[in-house]
Amino acid sequence: MRFSSTTTSPDGTIERDFTHDGVPGVLWTPPGDPAGLVLSAHGGGQHKRAARTVDRAHRCTAAGLAVITLDSPAHGDRPRTTEDDRYITEIRAALARGRDASAILAEYNALQATRAIPEWRSLLDALPDLGDHVGFWGTSMGSAIGIPLVAREPRVDTAVFGLIGATDALVTAARAITVPVRFLLQWDDRLVGRDAGLALFDAFAAPGKSLHANPGGHGDVPEHELDAAVAFLAR
Prior knowledge:
9-stranded mixed sheet; 7 helices
C-alpha cells in the first residue's frame, strides 16, 4: 500500500488516501486503537468519497472501528472500458424509460464482482492489524461484490448487506455464508423487487441473520437502520 495524504477530521478521525496495486482507496481510523475493521463497498455510480460512503465511515469510527474502501472498477478515479460504457448506457436508458433494469444491473454487478473480489482480498493481505475482527458493509452494488467476497473470505466475520435481489450466483454464494448477517430491504424499491430481496435473504445459511425492511425507495434507508448497522458491526 502506498499512502499519499493524511488529514484529521474535527471528530478526530484520521483519513489516509492510498493506492494498492493501482486501485485508489481511503482508510479511516478512529482517534484510539481500532476495535475492528470494516470493509466498506460503495454502491453503483458512487465512489470512495461519495457522501454516503464518508458518512458511513464516520459513523463507524465514532464506534471505534477502522474503515477502508476502494473505488470499484469503472468508478471514482478509475477508468471505464467500452464494456462499462455499454452497460451504463443500457442501464440509464432502461431507467429513463421506466423499464425493468434488474436483469442488466445483475449482469453488470456480476462483472464488477469478478473484477473487485481479487482487489479486496489482496488489500486484506496488505493491511496491518486493525483490531480483533473484520466486518463488511455494502449495499446494492456493494452487496453484489460483498456477498461472493464474504463467501470466499474467512477473515470476514460479520456482514451488512441489502438493496439487492436474488440471482443464481448470489444465491449460491449466500448459501456458503454462515457468519452473522444483517440484511436491509426497502419495501418500495423500484430497482430491486421485494420478492427478489426476500429470496436472497432466505438463501443465507447464517443462523444469526436478520431482515430489516422499511418503507421507501432504493436510497431511503432510515437513519435508525444505519446506526443499528454500526452497532451490529461493532459487536
